[in-house]
Amino acid sequence: MKPEIRIPDFNEVPFIVIWELTRACELHCLHCRAEAQVERNPYELSTEEGKRLIDDIAAMEYPMLVFTGGDPLMRTDVFELAEYAVEKGVRVSMTPSATPNVTKEAMQKAKDVGLSRWAFSLDGHNKQVHDHFRGTEGSFDLTMKAISYLNELGMPLQINTVISNYNIEYLEEMREMVESLDCVLWSVFFLVPTGRGKNEDMITPAQHEQVFRWLNKIKDEVPFDIKTTAAQHYRRVVIQDQMRKNKDTDAQIRYMDALSEGKTGTIDGLGRAPKGVNDGNGFVFISHIGHVYPSGLLPVNCGNVRVDKLSDIYRNSPILKSLRNPDLYKGKCGVCEFRHVCGGSRSRAYAATGDYLESEPYCVYIPKAYRKKKKKVTES
Questions:
Q1: Structural domains in the chain?
Q2: Cα–Cα distance, 68 to 79 (Å, whole number)
Q3: Of residues 193 and 292, which shows the higher confidence score?
Q4: For the residues 78-100, what does the mean pLDDT come to?
Q5: Which residues form the Radical SAM core domain (predicted)?
Q6: Cα–Cα distance between 369 and 136 in angstroms, integer?
Q7: CA angle 180, 128, 96 (to 5 degrees)
Q8: pLDDT at 208 > cutoff 80
Q9: Secondary structure of residue 283 in the 3-state scheme
């Protein structure tokens, strides 16, 4: 008998908390959201402030905590914070940059303190593509070396890939490489033009749809799970495909319909969200100096954890509350029948229009309400 899936109320608690420990990083990635710098900011949250934040996260029960940056390994207390969080019962993963800081000793320490997963970025199937995107020669070789260490230690590996004009032509090659690395999850990010990310680096709306359909096709063929970031409309593609296969066009649209059971089970201790997250809706981001944003790609300040508890900010911020109400979305997103399971990327809407409630500008789908309206106009 399958265990009952506990679905958190995203109005009360997030499923994922991202904490940008620092913006310091030795890489110079072309798309860097944080516009990372070489030196650490002296106003970063201190170790004690970080532990108080972790206490609040632990009290919310559900959240998975992800240490990111910059490069989280630029902080000397990163493993102290990780160990503290694990002891509090929080699931923790980390996304370090592929620099000389990533040693076998650092990975062993991460495993010893109980990190659930380690994620590395690979944005090209070879060093030419990846190193160009990461702005640092040798990044690809360092990443591959670090992955081999991780596999030796038997620690679950996640691969993060940003889809852009730099690698759109090499998706099949990327798939083959990811498959060879024995990872548990391929997390596919779709570029949002913020920080160093530029509009000209983005793929077109039609290419977004093509990549979604390709991911939906291969998800049942590969030995790892696939998830998308800043691509909520991928859920719509998966659900549409299942509705076609079931020949049930009137089926209730639910996020669970877009999920397989997952090939990796719970081996990494993380699991997956039982319903779709979006910026500010099941997902929240804390900056290196404590500002709370709906996500790192949606830099609208909702408060600061030095002033208020994260739980209070998450539950009560007018910005976050509006993001959790898809009926407030504008344009075609506001009337789309998939808005409660998709909602479009609020980050990309904000980057393109300055309004995080506007319609997802890189979605080609025409909602039923629009099609019916056009039909009536045509018939009249």
A1: 16-321 (3.20.20.70), 328-379 (no CATH)
A2: 13
A3: 292
A4: 90
A5: 11-244
A6: 48
A7: 65
A8: yes
A9: strand
